[in-house]
Amino acid sequence: MMRQFELVETVKSYDANVDEDALNRAYVFSMKAHGAQTRASGDPYFSHPLEVAGILTGLKLDGASIMTALLHDTVEDTDTSIDDIEQLFGKDVARLVDGVTKLSRLELQSEQSKHAENFRKLVLAMSEDIRVLLVKLADRLHNMQTLHYMRDPEKRKRIARETMEIYAPLAERIGMQSFKDELEDLAFRELNPEARESIVKRLEFLRQRGGDLETRVSQELQYALDGEGLKATVRGRTKTPYSIWRKMQVKNVGFEQLSDIMAYRVIVETVPECYHALGVLHARYPVVPGRFKDYISTPKPNGYRSLHTGLIGPQRQRIEVQIRTREMHEVAEYGVAAHWLYKQPDAELDSEAIGQGRSVDGRQYRWVRELLDILEHASNPEEFLEHTKMEMFQDQVFCFTPKGDLIALPRNSTPVDFAYAVHSEVGDTCVGAKVDGRMVPLKTPLKNGDQVEIVTSKAQTPSPDWEKFVVTGKARARIRRFVRQKEREQYHELGRQMLQKAFRQEGYDFTEKAVAGVQKRFKAENVGDIYVYVGRGDITAREVVHAVFPGAKESDKDRKIVPIQQRPKSKGGRRDHAVPIRGLIPGMAVHYAHCCHPLPGERIVGIVTTGKGVTVHTIDCETLENFQDSPERWVDLAWEADETDEPYTGRLHVVVANEPGSLGDLSTVIGKNRANISNLKITNRSVDFFEMLVDVEVTDVKHLTNVMAALRASPVITSVDRARG
């Protein structure tokens, strides 16, 4: 265990201006606060914060960060309060300690929600000061190093999964490769010990068989570069067992097929020398196709810059070579910490200035801003955690805006993901996309190097269908928030109209005041919630009426359904008191039945489904027979009188002659009648005929009737009918 004077001297070795007195007081305070507490290993508990502080001195962090490491568990595990920390060590240290605290006092319902809430607060804290994340990662690293002392195997696995899913990706996002590698490997040891042991044994076998192969390859690469007058340092390394395992899983290849089990780093002085070294090696050794990546001209979002290439190198070994400058190498190893002010010899800033400086502001990092945006739009901590895992745990593609700005996205991202990455409003109003100048569907997966131009419209809003194909957490969070908000609006409007109709049917005047009087009975906070419950089908409109007027109650079994075909119509075909549905977004409060495909102009009825809203059927739909015993679920519906160009889908059963050009004639006739084929399925084929189902987008039933008449006039069409079921 590091002694007090050793810690102080270590910090002074790279920060001559550190407040020695405060550092000494923090050491003593933490040791006394933890007192006789012990860890699972049997060591004094104080050894943990001291080891965390030691890890951070390796990154040459400032005095405030080291004091935070010493104090980070005092608020959680002792009687110390944040106010005590602020009074003794200042606002800067108190704010950092508060950000790092595990927040175990949160009274949440489940372990998962507790973890999600803790992570949500960590993101908020690190957005204010990135040092919070550095201390937290060091804390997690030491906990993982001592995880094997914990007796409960389930708890060990839970901590290891949490490390793999959250903390290792976070370390990668800030470029701390050494932290990421060690966290992943320690978690891998716990989660899949057999696989790790197998890879370790195979690596050991390779070392024994190849002898000092790593040294020989390094020397030959060094000789090749020296011969061209390049001052370079060559270092070899074996990849970690987990990174080897993950590549085997992702690429679906065996151990022997991996080309980069051995990786070599060539470190030079300048960027031109990086490309010079690349040319030397490519001229001397065969290149493995598809293995070259230029992260110097196109850096990773975490600031990583390097040239990667695969070679059949010295000793006929398949190797990966990474070429970078010394500065790039420090960033690659230590990420954010490599830019720390105290690593500059001429830095003369006190800790307060650093605490206020831009170097610690987490929001300067794009990925932190994206996490904050997800946080703003997620409905609960668990959803935030889900979107965040999705955001951080995927490989990336790099695309460009028309102005040449680089946008990094997870693999399989679409133009909608790209639009949200550019700006939330661009995503919300996205109507189309051009990739390399060509219009493409919004669900098209993007590839490395694509130039993407987003077409927007002020009239556009996010589509619920987008959630089926977007992959970024930010896009999914924005879409879900819009859908939740819009669904509530739709349920509110539909429920209000259903209640008005129910009141009229029972002979009462509808008033909001009357409905407000029973909101407590239905556990609603306001009248709007009652409307939403009715529109969503959680309660029926008649239940609300009977709650307001108990004397009006009658048994559903005694209530007879008057066939809708026999109900009187008012002028213009609109039934009296029918609930209008035009203006409600399909797929939210209303759903059009796929068994009958109702169209404007047809008589319609709705069936209320709990939690889903209303499903619209035509009045002659055979499916309605299944609901004859549930009169409370029927809603009399009508289309609004005003006409719009909104497309509706009508399904046709068509028999076409089996001859060249017949399908072309079919689509030509439909197109000439201002309709559009949205789907086509051949159900039967014989020598003479095709039978098919054709979904046609039309404006109303009259439009579909005209299309059917035109099809029947075509000589290649044998028959056309509305498809049912």
From TrEMBL:
Domain (HD): residue spans on this chain: 45-144
Domain of life: Bacteria
Domain ACT: from-to ranges: 651-725
Segments passing through the bilayer: none
Domain TGS: 391-456
Family matches, as Pfam families: ACT_4 (PF13291), HD_4 (PF13328), RelA_AH_RIS (PF19296), RelA_SpoT (PF04607), TGS (PF02824)
Stored InterPro entries: ACT-like_dom_sf, ACT_dom, Beta-grasp_dom_sf, HD/PDEase_dom, HD_domain, NT_sf, RelA/Spo_fam, RelA/SpoT_AH_RIS
UniProt similarity note: Belongs to the relA/spoT family.
Listed name of the protein: GTP pyrophosphokinase rsh
Species annotation: Rhodovibrio sodomensis
